[in-house]
Amino acid sequence: MEVRNGRRVSRGMLPLLALHTFSEYYRSDRKPPVTAALIAANTLIYIRPSLLNSIIPSIDEVWFNPHLILKNKDLKRFFLSPFYHIGEPHLVYNMLSLLWKGFQLETAMGSLEFASMVASLLALSQGFTLMLSKSLLLFFEYERAYYNEYAVGFSGVLFALKVVLNSRSENYSYVHGVLVPSRYAAWAELVLIQMFVPGVSFIGHLGGIFAGLVYLRLRGNYSGPDPLAFLMRGLTGALNWPLNFLYSVFRRSRGRISGRGTVGGSRTGRRSTQSGVWRCQACTYDNSGLLSVCEMCGTSRDGVGLSSFQWNRDSDGLPLDELRRRRIDRFGR
Questions:
Q1: Fewest C-beta in 10 Å: which of 42, 202, 222, 294?
Q2: 283 and 263 in contact (C-beta within 8 Å)?
Q3: Measured distance CA(159)–CA(147) in Å, rounded
Q4: What are the phi and psi torsion angles at 287 (to 5°)?
């Protein structure tokens, strides 16, 4: 994303962009429409044909300026500034980068998901750029450097797309002639562009990288370097600690409410070592000491009614095995 107050003129590069785009779409079996639409939209806004001149806002109306956006709540500057460029080299470089990244991502994930991702990354990158600019003003008083700067261009979104594209890659990439692991490519390009290309917006590119990291974190599929990981883990741990503490307290203090026991919990024989608990000889169910008959199978505490062939007088003539089965079904629900 370059920073200029005026338009830089450079002729003859738009035909190169058109030829390269046509060649890529002609050779490809799958022709991603969202990528083509984004390239066409950026190019039409730059060309400003007379038919659309009255509809398309001027670049002076859409410069990304943190001060004006926050002061006037100007959403037009917030959302439209990525689609404007200050010269043909600026436009062509960004659109060739979009063509390369868009082809790979859109053909892999589908057009609808790719369009949704681009919209999310655009909003996130612009939001992070705005937040970083305001934070630098509040904490370091860098007002002239970042808070009042004017910037346009699709570079923030492109940096976010680069993070998404390289997040799972184990290969190496060349970044301006330097070979680096692909998952570090966005960070390397951020540093190299800032060092060797004058007039670029460091905050805009950094906001794009953060947008890609947050998008991948929300989707849960990022495995590369993440400077926000420590902060997010700390925040998650701080939020979970009170819940874990309360759970452990209630778990330790929780006791039997209904007075029921367990099955097969102790092997001390008929009488359990636990106070007031006795074990049924028939089904090994631990009963409360207040009961004289097993709550599970109906066998008396003294073992009467233990035989499976005995009949229970209070069971309407049902065999004891059947009565036990029904009671187990009832209590096991």
A1: 202
A2: yes
A3: 21
A4: -105, 160
Per the CB < 8 A criterion, the answer to whether 107 and 99 are in contact is no
First to last CA, the chain: 64
List the structure tokens of 259: 């007075």
pTM beyond 0.70: no
- Which residue is listed with tokens 């979104």? 157
Nearest to 109 by CA among 21, 30, 27: 30
Q: Which residues pair with 151 in a beta bridge?
A: 64
Nearest Cα residue to 328 out of 290, 276, 269, 284: 284
Report the 10 Å Cβ neighbour count for 163: 27
Sequence letter at residue 152: V
Query: One-letter amino acid identity for 103?
Result: F
Q: Which residues contact 317 (CB under 8 A, 6 or more apart)?
A: 311
For every residue of 18-62, DSSP letters joined together read HHHHHHHHHH-SS--HHHHHHHHHHHHHHH--TTTTTTSPPGGGT
Question: Is 206 in contact with 120 (CB distance < 8 Å)?
Answer: no
Active site residues: 155, 205
* Residue 197: half-sphere exposure toward Cβ, Cα within 13 Å: 17
Show the DSSP H helices in 224-310 as ranges: 229-253
Model confidence pLDDT, tens digit, residues 180-207: 888 888 888 888 888 887 778 889 999 9
Backbone angles phi, psi at 277, to 5 degrees: -125, 135
pLDDT digits (tens, 9 = 90+) for 90-147: 999 999 999 999 999 999 999 999 999 999 999 999 999 999 998 888 877 655 677 8
Contacts of 120 (CB under 8 A, 6+ apart): 215
Secondary structure of residue 254 in the 3-state scheme? coil
| CA separation, residue 33 to residues 30, 37, 100, 103, 329 (Å) | 9, 6, 14, 10, 61
DSSP helix/strand/coil, 333 = coil
Contact 215, 124 (CB under 8 A): yes
Cα–Cα distance, 248 to 252 (Å, whole number):
6
Rg of the Cα atoms in the chain: 35
